[in-house]
Amino acid sequence: MKICNKHGTIPSDPKSFLMLHFVEFQKFYGNFPALKIDELVIDPGIYWIKGVNGSGKSTLLKSIAGILAFNGDIVLNGNISIKKQPVAYRKLVNFAEAEPLFPEFLTGMEMIELFASAKDSPAGQEQYFIESMKMQSYVNRPIGTYSSGMLKKLSLVLAFLGNPKLILLDEPLITIDTDSLKILYSWISKRHRENGVSFMLSSHQALDNTELPHAVELLVEEQRLKVNQPMIMNK
Amino acid sequence: MTNVLVKIFAKGFYKVNSGFLMCLFAVFISYCFFINTAGDIKLLSAEQALYYNFIMLVNFVKSPMITILFFTGWLIYTIKSWYYVFGQLYKVQHQFLFYSILSSRKTLQFRSWFYTQFIVSLPFVFYALIAVITGIVFHEYLMALIITLFTPLLISISAFIYVIKLNSLIQNNNSWWMFVLSRRWRKPFFSLFLYYVSDKLKLTYIITKLLSYVVIISVMFSLADVKQDPRVVGLVILGVVIAHSILIYQQHKFELIFLTTSRNFPYSIGNLYFNYLLTYMFLLLPEIIWLFASFTPIMSIGLLLLLLSMVMLFHCILYKIGLAMNNYLPWVLGLFLITFLFILFGLMWLLVPIYFIVSFVIFNMNYYKAEIFV
What we know:
The complex is a heterodimer of chains A (235) and B (374).
Chain A: E1 2-3, E2 20-29, E3 32-42, E4 46-50, H1 57-65, E5 71-76, E6 80-81, H2 86-92, E7 93-96, H3 108-118, H4 125-132, H5 148-159, E8 166-170, H6 178-195, E9 198-202, E10 216-221, E11 224-227, E12 232-233
Parallel strand pairs in A: 4-9, 4-10, 7-8, 8-9
Antiparallel strand pairs in A: 1-12, 2-3, 2-5, 5-6, 10-11
Helix pairs in contact in A: 3-5
Chain B: H1 2-40, H2 46-62, H3 64-89, H4 106-120, H5 122-137, H6 141-167, H7 176-182, H8 192-200, H9 202-222, H10 230-243, H11 245-258, H12 269-283, H13 285-294, H14 297-321, H15 325-344, H16 348-366
Helix pairs in contact in B: 1-4, 1-15, 2-3, 2-5, 3-6, 4-6, 5-6, 8-9, 9-10, 10-14, 10-15, 11-14, 13-14, 14-15, 14-16, 15-16
């Protein structure tokens, strides 16, 4: 199965175009098959991953992020395999957890410095995110004092650090207030427009069509990843 | 209520602390081995070996010093159990206790906590029972009485503290001193577990270090006449690593719970391995200082490499076997016995490359496969 561009065509040189290529992807928990994707190519864009509780949305995102082990391979930009080039791959793929859990003794800023260093983030990159999300008042406090909303905002900032090509946000709409949600949408639009960054967002609730009008729907159901948009065609 | 408390706290305590019990077991095995070996090579006759074993047992009730040592050990064990229970009380999944148990009478709460602490203290209660019987047989009635009174007293105090703690509701108990002290320091990846130890595992760290020093002192003193033999220091290193097995386990747990997203960091396997090596070098700094203070520089470097290779092997097998303590302990015991034999047969230095290579291979094959909590 292939997911094509907005014009419904597959480019002549797929490597110059495709973002993610799943190759015989299989994820098991013990003997239980959690998710199976035989062959799927996804082009750059913003994707909304839907699915009921336990359908495997988080498993999918954590696998793409390189956090969960799986059988098969995932290839980014046509030539960067998670298995063969794990360092290069992880430099280009960022992730924010649905319910983040960080060491309580670190401050938010120390966590940001850790991620900025790991992801080779340009100096001062975090300031824009901290200020626009209005985190200045608590970012230097220990994480143990954070509410779940503050923790969620921190995890979102961490996911935007560095120069990723793909950002995975697991349930980004939960926990944070509506004002912060608008700011998050603006970050996504800006990063996609200006830097060509792709996004995969898992969520139970619908994304805001006015904020992200071009988001493509993907459905995780019956241990499979299915596509819900007319511009997608099966091969 | 009692069943719930025993399941949550007593069973959990044994599960988490079986590393220490394993360490004591290993020390016991070593003791038996040396006593029997001494007997085998005719240093001690069979009668003498039996006599010394008997003297050890009787001394527990006849010598006030030994009894005080026993009480001190029990007290440390009990304080450790307090820390464990306090830690568990504040966990989100156990906070239902605050709005369930608190509805019952305090006497009932006390009774349930008393039974829970009794189960937690069983290893010492069992020993106390033997000591009391031995005391009665040898007419040491005062000591038998003191031990008999000490047992319920310590358990009652623990139960009382738990009742008070639960009824005082949830309080913020962050280590502010550590935050103030370290806020200007950079916190690289390898240092995170060290901060975690100083924040959440203080008591575990102190007990580990005490055990470690007991191993160093007891082996070096008991084998003082042959202490130039590298095998003696090899056995000390092995004891130190076994004493640290619970901290190594805690490191893995910390990584899987709090640093799951770090698997998304673009660090190479070699870089990650080196980071963990650095973590353990800092964690074992007191022992490393002892090595360099006690032996020649070349010997010290060799022993340091032996120490780190063993620690890294213990660390890396956790990626293969997971967090289940019941899987980890047989591995700890198995590696202890294998290493013990290698050291005894003078093959100690061979272990350094073997353990480094094996640990790196296991790490390389399993780092990204280790199961995490989804």
